[in-house]
């Protein structure tokens, strides 16, 4: 039997699942960034520890995927979900979508398998947030997981049944188009023939990006912590192999981070060879000031949440009044280079970094919606 106990600040929807509002606790962290609401779900019987962070619902319900990752602890997971969630608000706003930003994490090792009971408990947690948060896939969350969660609660996108399916190829398409725009802007080249691209991470997006880059004639250098993927890319695309630690400083015109965040830092930026950074990973900058470090070295940075918005644009199309229309979604993805062109132009005119301009455009749209 379901029970509710909101007075105690704890809302349990099944006897074993405890849902706690931890907004107050999160407020103490440097990455809090005025989140509207942060909620933890714990179910020790079913092996769930999850956090849902809702950064903003000003433009619409907060949409953002669920990441399943073996975080070292709760605090690390909380910091990650806050940063990711904040990024989703900017991503939706700059992409012109009627959506807010949110994100969720489950502390678990997806490679060790995701117990059905854990996902059931998570689905129950999601159901309690269905008016404010809509989830989708992210690292460690599969299409099959999304399909399963959708049987429990409607606020799940990126499903196969009547949904838009796997967002990763669409993210890769948007990243490819954005990378081409950045190359045009920084290197003055209209095509990618012979352009050297170093790709970090050969997962769902990185691999699909390599397919497009290879077809466009780019010369690839690749890495992944999974060596079988690196070998496969060498065979499939004639890619040069680099070690995970060597990829950032690889001889390349473009660096495409497509693994995890925080790779562009005070330590790594001085060693970059590339003149363009354009990849799909979220939160590529370790600190906001790393955007200035890149600009000072003459490296053009395509802000992550602009270039990797393809997947969000695709799943968001499911929520449009007429339902999912792939052609309409792809037409919107094709505008990513236009947004980047505007950012690059404004950054060149004002001397601000591309990251600052992207944040400013997103903030302008949110402020306009607030005052409307
Ligand atoms: N899938 C999407 O539609 C989408 C949308 C927007 C942003 N992103 C972001 O793009 C990135 C990649 O997403 P994905 O869906 O391809 O994830 P994925 O899990 O399919 O792939 C990630 C790949 O990176 C590799 N990797 C992890 N750590 C590494 C390291 N230190 N060095 C080299 N390789 C490493 C993994 O082995 C894996 O092959 C993530 O940051 C994700 O948040 C994805």
Automatic annotation (TrEMBL):
One of its GO terms (biological process) is amino acid metabolic process. The keyword NAD applies. The active site is at residue 103. CDD domains: NAD_bind_Leu_Phe_Val_DH. NAD(+) binds at residues 201-206. Coiled coil: none annotated. GO terms for molecular function: nucleotide binding; oxidoreductase activity, acting on the CH-NH2 group of donors, NAD or NADP as acceptor. Keywords: NAD, Nucleotide-binding, Oxidoreductase. Gene3D superfamilies: Leucine Dehydrogenase, chain A, domain 1, NAD(P)-binding Rossmann-like Domain. Residues 165-370 form the Glutamate/phenylalanine/leucine/valine/L-tryptophan dehydrogenase C-terminal domain. PANTHER family: LEUCINE DEHYDROGENASE, VALINE DEHYDROGENASE. This is Amino acid dehydrogenase. It comes from Oricola thermophila.
């Amino acid at each position: 039997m379901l029970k509710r106990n909101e007075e105690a600040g704890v809302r349990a929807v099944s006897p074993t699942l405890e849902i706690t509002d931890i907004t107050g606790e999160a407020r103490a962290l440097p990455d809090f960034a005025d989140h509207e609401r942060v909620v933890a779900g714990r179910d020790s019987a079913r092996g769930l520890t999850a956090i849902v962070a809702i950064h903003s619902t000003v433009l619409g319900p907060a949409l953002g995927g669920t990441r399943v990752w073996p975080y070292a602890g709760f605090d690390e997971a909380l910091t990650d979900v806050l940063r990711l969630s904040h990024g989703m608000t900017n991503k939706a706003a700059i992409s012109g979508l009627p959506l807010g930003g949110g994100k969720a994490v489950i502390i678990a090792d997806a490679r060790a398998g995701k117990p059905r009971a854990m996902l059931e408990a998570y689905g129950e947690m999601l159901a309690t947030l269905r008016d404010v948060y809509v989830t989708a896939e992210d690292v460690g969350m599969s299409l099959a997981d999304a399909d399963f969660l959708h049987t429990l609660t409607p606020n799940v996108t990126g499903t196969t049944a009547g949904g838009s399916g796997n967002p990763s190829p669409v993210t890769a398409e948007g990243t490819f188009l954005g990378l081409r725009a950045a190359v045009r802007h920084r290197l003055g080249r209209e095509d990618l023939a012979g352009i050297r691209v170093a790709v970090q991470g050969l997962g769902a997006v990185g691999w699909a990006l390599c397919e497009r880059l290879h077809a466009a004639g780019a010369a690839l250098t690749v890495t992944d912590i999974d060596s079988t993927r690196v070998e496969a890319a060498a065979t499939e695309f004639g890619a040069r192999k680099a070690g995970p630690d060597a990829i950032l400083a690889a001889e390349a015109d473009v660096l495409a981070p497509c693994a995890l965040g925080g790779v562009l830092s005070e330590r790594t930026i001085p060693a970059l060879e590339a003149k363009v950074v354009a990849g799909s990973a979220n939160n590529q900058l370790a600190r906001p000031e790393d955007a200035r470090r890149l600009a000072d070295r003459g490296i053009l940075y395509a802000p992550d949440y602009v270039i990797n918005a393809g997947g969000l644009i695709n799943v968001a199309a499911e929520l449009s009044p007429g339902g999912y229309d792939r052609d309409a979604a792809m037409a919107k993805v094709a505008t990513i280079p236009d947004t980047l062109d505007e950012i690059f132009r404004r950054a060149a005119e004002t001397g601000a970094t591309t990251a600052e301009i992207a944040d400013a455009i997103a903030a302008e749209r949110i402020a306009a919606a607030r005052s409307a």
